[in-house]
Amino acid sequence: MLDEKYSPLLDFNIIHGRTLCSKIIDSDAVPVVSISDDIHIITVINDSMMSNALINSIKFKKGKINYIIVDKYIKWISKIESIKNYLTKEYDNLPDYILYIDGFDVLILKDILFPEKYLQPYNCKILFNVEPGFWHTGFPSENNYFDPLYNDVKKRYIELNEIKYGKKFEFGLNAGVFLGRKDYVLFLMNETYNIMIDDISKGFPYGCMDDQCALRYMINLYYDDISVDVFNLLTFWGCDRAFVDGEMNELKLDYFKTFFKGINYNQNIIR
Question: How far apart are CA 133 and CA 145, in angstroms?
Fold first, then answer.
């Protein structure tokens, strides 16, 4: 049985975070879910990683994981390149929406039946998971390469957030889960890939192999099209401490009603 303090996790559609996912799996509390026919779920993985993937624990009544298998998984270029190539090749055979989930630390816990239910409130074409900090994943770089990320990129992002939300949110895009319109996902993967394979001597973000950092650069360029799920409508990211301390929830609770006031959306999205 799932520990009572973690039971609120079951109210979220998608949980991202290995510790929290493991608690649900270990307690045998993974629900059976249905996914809309409009949504194609993908992950990028290699054969050796398959047996340890937490997404193997997702239980579907309707829907499935579509595995993009690579010979060698190279962080994090394999993910962006593989999604780009897969969508290009299969484009005409795919439905209108793409849901990407990391293989090792993601669970789907509720039905996801109306993709625009999550995109429309943010008025975006692609919605990424959110995390409370603005950091990189530890990918090695040349000296001071990430300085522009923590200065120019972050500063501009906070300014754009203040315009949209009325507050200087300092949260960051998390690239482990995203839902988007097929055409825009392909566009963004192409743009991000081109940046990642560019000459690192040109300075950030060019040649940046940390996809999360590259995408944080991209969100400033296309802020009207790319959003992060600050109100956890689709996803929740966290570790054990972050969840227990409620660090993520305060973002949602303080500004939820203010942000959505006057927006034409389905009231059922508010849990």
Answer: 19
